Amino acid sequence: MTYMLAIIMNGYQIHLGFCDREVFVRARVRDTVLELIPPQVFGTLEHFDLPASLVNNCVHWLDLRTRVIEIRQPPNIWTSKQSNWLLDFSTGYATRRTSTLVDLHSPLFQRIARTFEHFESRRHLTAFQPDWGRLTVELRRLELLFFVNGNNLFQSPQLKSEIDLNQDAGTLYELNSKLVLREVAKVRDPVTHYLFSVLQRQRSILVPMGDIKYSRND
Hints:
It is built from one helix and 16 strands. Strands 1-2-3-4-5-6-7-8-9-10-11-12-13-14-15-16 form a 16-stranded antiparallel beta sheet, with no helix packed on it. The longest helix has 9 residues, at 107-115. Strand 1 and strand 2 form a beta hairpin. It is mainly β. The protein folds into two domains: 3-97, no CATH class; 107-206, no CATH class.
């Protein structure tokens, strides 16, 4: 490192250095040295290693001793929090509390992405598996959450509906960016008192707002 800033940021000394005309930033507090990782390290718009929710508007600090990257969000870029995602180079896993991020290059994530194909781009899907819970997919731009329910279908707690296996809505043919949902109701068995799902006939079509792209098919 070449320079040190005169100011102290939340107890951190800020050091600057250069290598091959690239600027490197390191923050030091006591025996901990963090290096700022530029977001382009995690890929491009087409080829990416982390979902956009963990790259855009985020700050990535690599602990040079533990080789763990902590992903922080403004305004708390100088503070470590349990709710932050941790990317461990030694294990290859990204975790947050008791949840593990699904690898974007894994067959599981490819299956998840095909479910939301055209509805939301793959880089904006954040899929994670809690230790004591069900596989969950977050669509942060659309403020939606889906988890795998007892029917092995993605269910939205906000909409109280699950993604219908039959995506034929009887209308809006050739509209790719839509999801056909069907309502799910929870009913308690009067004898066993267990909750079970009853599928209602009501179906709905979910379409994200945005710029329209269209083309003629043959």
